[in-house]
Design a protein that fits this description.
Rossmann fold; five-stranded parallel sheet; 40% helix; single chain; alpha/beta; Response regulator CheY-like domain-containing protein
Length: 127
């Protein structure tokens, strides 16, 4: 039933990566909302029912890690899965300490992302 599908937001500035993740999520029964920047995610419709966030670390403006910080400061418990092409152990430690569900380096196996999203959904109730 469509109403039971979980909504996942993808914040990724690379159009081809964003489309790939969108197709993957749709194939696994998730609804997906696409955003090209952290700023566009923050400006989304207040009625949006996003239950998990797949977030690129290195975005054109505000970074993914800064977006996660702002969400936490605003009281959001939205689970975050970081994806990145950056080979930076310091960023990974920073993201992990900030409480992300997973930190995946591109290219990553599709199953790792789906497993992380399922884990995020379990933390919010049954998927």
């Amino acid at each position: 039933m469509e109403s039971l599908r979980r909504t996942v937001a993808i914040v990724e500035d690379d159009a081809s990566m964003r489309r790939s993740v969108l197709r993957l999520l749709n194939a696994h029964g998730f609804l997906a909302e696409e955003y090209t920047s952290a700023e566009s995610f923050l400006g989304r419709d207040a009625g949006s029912n996003v239950e998990c966030l797949v977030l690129d670390v290195d975005l054109g403006g505000m970074s993914g890690i800064e977006l996660q910080r702002r969400l936490k400061e605003a009281g959001s418990g939205l689970p975050v899965i970081f994806i990145t092409a950056l080979e930076d152990d310091t960023l990974e430690v920073e993201a992990t300490q900030a409480g992300c569900i997973a930190y995946l380096r591109k290219p990553f196996p599709a199953a790792l992302l789906i497993d992380a999203i399922n884990d995020a959904c379990k933390s919010q109730g049954p998927c």
